[in-house]
Amino acid sequence: MRISFIGSGRVAHHFAKQLSKQHQIVQIYSRDLTHAQKLAEQCHAQAIQNYSQFDHNIDLLMIAISDQAIAEVIVNMGRYFENVLIVHTSGSTHLNVLSQQHARSGVFYPLQTFSLERDIDWSNTPLFVEATQVDDLQILVALANSLSNRVYTYDSAQRLSLHLAAVFACNFSNYCYDMAKQVVDAEQVDFSLLYPLILETANKATLNNPKTMQTGPAMRGDQNILNMHMKMLAEAGRGDLKQVYEILSQGIQTRQSSQ
């Protein structure tokens, strides 16, 4: 396939590099030409920063940009690629944001966290596809299968639920790791001592119902420990961490008391 990208950030970076192993990446568009050039060099593509420079002879245009910018981009791009399949890679943006402006529209969403510094295990990364036309859905399924062993045809509502769940499972949990590091750093304690605990907790959550795996003072209802921890945070001037600690502890107790 001949594929071009709008966007040169983390998602575009990982998709373009991986797809370039089996397909031709034609162009990378970004308002920041330097960013587009860096990615284009890695996948043997052309970097551009003006819509007028687009090569229309492609099979697929992937929009891999911030969610809030997708609607504006498709309004501008539809007239340039009237007969081309256009997809976005967002978990939280409805398909109709594209389909209201463009007949051949779809979604190509990877349920993964992306960092420029780390490679992705694409074979185990779930990919979710959706399209307005049956033939285009088949094209996206085939493309997804060339990357991953886990391909699903979920609709926009299902995808949004996954995106929300991912914020809890990934973004919020990572912030908890960050808070934990702040606590031990304040006492010059090695954060790596928590690595086995972090890995075991994540591993248990993938093998069991997370509710039944819950441990800790909140689950046990140990109010003495809860009070001591919150006092420590207050005395350290970390009212922000104390607030999170209190909210999460209350949430755990409420959840454990439910059936």
UniProtKB/TrEMBL annotation:
A single Pfam family, by name?
A: F420_oxidored
Which parts form a coiled-coil structure per UniProt?
none
Key words, A-Z: Oxidoreductase
**In its keyword annotation, does this UniProt entry include Oxidoreductase?**
yes
User: Could you name the domain of life of the organism this protein comes from?
Assistant: Bacteria
Q: Matching InterPro entries, A to Z?
A: 6-PGluconate_DH-like_C_sf, DUF2520, NAD(P)-bd_dom_sf, P5C_Rdtase_cat_N, TM1727-like_C_sf
What sequence ranges are listed for the domain Pyrroline-5-carboxylate reductase catalytic N-terminal?
2-87
Q: Keyword Cytoplasm on this protein? A: no
**Name recorded for this polypeptide:** DUF2520 domain-containing protein
The organism encoding this protein is Acinetobacter rongchengensis
